[in-house]
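user: can you give me the structure for this one chain? tokens are fine.
assistant: on it. calling the predictor now.
[tool input]
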Amino acid sequence: MAGTVIIAGLSIGSGHPVRVESMLKIPLSSREECLEQCRSLASSGCELIRAAFPSPDLGGDLAWLNEKSPVPLMADIHFDPALALAALEAGTPSIRINPGNMARARLREVVASAQEKKAVIRIGANGGSLNSAQLERAGGVRSDALAAAVEEQLLILMEEGFEDIILSAKSTSVHETVRANSLLALKYPGYPFHIGITESGYGRDGLVKSAAGLALLLGQGIGNTIRISLTESPLEEVRAGYSLLRAMDLRQRGGSLISCPTCGRKRIEVRKIADLVTPCLESLPDGVTVAVMGCEVNGPREAMDADFGIAGSPRGAVVFSKGTVLKEVPLERVPELLAGMAEEACRLKEKHDNR
């Protein structure tokens, strides 16, 4: 069972929700743009934001953003322990480092600073950063080399007496990522895990690739924070993260939509109505389900768990809740029903929850 770490009041680990995170896609030097992106991410439900920190010259910008961001930050550090120290001095509550790339004396400084400031350290390896020696020791099996690379980093921090650690093993290969994390979770179940498929791409293929890997891990109980890494707006990464967690029945944020794929029986334009419903979902209470179904066959019965639903019928559309038809209305009244959907769904959910 994974232990718990706390990043600026955000609890990560066993017994806590799987956290959804993203990364700033704007340089820290663009202060106001970064802050606006942090605020937008917060509104979308993002709980942890990673920020690239490539130069100590950006220390003032990072400190400024740490003070103003509504979401805790994690500074992304590569190679240079001086950057890790500067990020901690700037008040960043968590950092991402590779201890194996740091001289032991300088690493001790980083650990001492993190302990003093009660900061969390994420360590991890990326499939693209494995060296020939690591691959040779693993017999050429990349997933095993990836797990071993993370273990090497963990043992270094354990030797330094540091325990507030998040583990991460990511690759652009689904199979490598799943196996590496499974190996690590078996051996080190006491640490929280961050999971993701790195460089997964964009659009449909990127979403499917990330979902395929993360679902396999989450289904095993592996993963305490997730990022859907996409060549898209970070807001899309967060929305996709919550969509995945809803599909896995791990978290609910706002409402969710059920809609049928349609067939020759459809009596209403399901896609058009679903497009009208979707913008309303985020304003609904967590866990409310709304259904849009093409006909009375797929309607109340197949979507009987929906708090509120609309289905095509011979005379227009039926409105239903939990499988029970409430009324039938002509098609021209459907937009009116959608306008009051949020209020109706909230009322129906409250009614059923109180039974």
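assistant: here you go. Residues 111 and 161 are 9 Å apart (CA to CA). The domain at 4-247 is CATH 3.20.20.20 (TIM Barrel).
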